[in-house]
Amino acid sequence: KIPCLIDCDTGMDDAIALICALLSQDRLDLKAITTVAGCVEVDKTSRNTLNIVDSLGSQIPVIRGAEAPLQRELYVAISHGTSGLGDVVVPEAKRALQEMDAVDMIYRCAVECEGKLQLLVTGPLTNVAKALTRYPAITSLIEKITIMGGALRGGNMTQASEFNIWVDPEAADIVFRSGISLTMVGLDVTLKTELPQYVYEQVRAMDNPFASLAADVFSYMMRRNSLTGVSLYGSVELDPAHMHDVLAMAVVVRPDLIKTEPHYIEVELAGSCTRGMTVADFNDVMNKQPNVDAAVDVDLDAFWAWMLELLEHGPKR
Ligand code: BDR
Ligand code: CA
């Protein structure tokens, strides 16, 4: 099993990623879940995360992490509604968040796993950057970080940048320079994962609590396509039902679902209209070793089949 810590900003697609992670425990040894501000404020991402895992019967510790980016003011997304889960109602957890510093938890898990820990990060990279800064030795204790974030080309927050990296570019910069093996599951592939109607219908017809919650989340994501909200640049349509974070989660247990290319990538910090851009040195003009395996293609049929099988039958026995 892969020892894994999830760092997330739950969030609609984070919620589906969590459900799929809980159902993947034949392949994943989930050590803890830390939360971060991003889709919504950290109190809400923490509550959403705890309520989801608790309502699905899991005792995995959930720890509240950073409430703001390292240097920038927090900017929350509009596509997840004010609660972070749209109009989806999850029962209040019967337990509390684990009282501990999230950064210490990341370090403790890394030490306990003796170099084998993998991180799955589906929000801004604030907690991970703090862990790297407070505990520099952690770089040799983490086997791999799989990130939903960035893009080789394009953006969704701005023309140049993806939301998670844009929110806390200084944190992303620390992580991208860390030397830890990184898989970037960015918009180049995640924008291909808009939920097909047939997948929604099959999940809706399933009869188990994991699939029922997933169907409720999908339903809001599909309906929000026609809603508008006020973003950085004024009124816009909300995101379609892209499974950004779910694909990143899938890749941890099923790396064969994507094709990657090694690239040297830096995060733009200073640009006035390129803040948070993940700039890939395509033509090797900087003469640097690649620091990121960037996803460039996804086997969508296999991805939807993976998700449907998991939601219907759970972990393979
Ligand atoms: C990312 O931003 C968030 O809104 C989603 O949960 C995902 O992690 C996509 O850019
Ligand atoms: Ca997210």
Task: Please explain how this structure is put together.
The protein has 317 residues and is an alpha/beta fold. 34% of the residues lie in helices and 19% in strands. The protein contains 11 helices and 12 strands. The strands form 3 sheets. The protein has an 8-stranded mixed beta sheet, with helices on both faces. The chain has a two-stranded antiparallel ribbon with strand order 7-8. Strand 1, helix 1 (12-22) and strand 2 form a beta-alpha-beta unit. The two termini are 13 Å apart. The model has no long low-confidence stretch (mean pLDDT 96). The site of calcium ion has 9 residues, from helix 1.
Summarize the model shown.
The protein has 317 residues and is an alpha/beta fold.
Name the features.
binds beta-D-ribofuranose, 34% helix, globular, IUNH, 11 helices, Ribo_hydro-like, binds calcium ion, Inosine/uridine_hydrolase_dom, purine nucleosidase activity, alpha/beta
SSE layout and pairings?
Layout: E1 2-8, H1 12-22, E2 28-35, H2 42-55, E3 62-63, H3 102-112, E4 117-121, H4 126-134, E5 142-148, H5 163-167, H6 169-176, E6 182-185, H7 187-190, H8 197-204, H9 209-223, E7 228-231, E8 234-237, H10 244-253, E9 258-263, E10 265-267, E11 278-280, E12 292-298, H11 300-313
Parallel strand pairs: 1-2, 1-4, 2-3, 4-5, 5-6, 6-12
Antiparallel strand pairs: 7-8, 9-12, 10-11
Helix pairs in contact: 1-2, 1-9, 1-10, 3-4, 4-6, 8-9
This protein binds beta-D-ribofuranose and calcium ion (CA).
End-to-end distance, in Å?
13 Å
Stretches where pLDDT falls below 50 for ≥5 residues? none
Small-molecule components bound: beta-D-ribofuranose, calcium ion
Question: Rg to the nearest angstrom?
Answer: 18 Å
Number of strands: 12
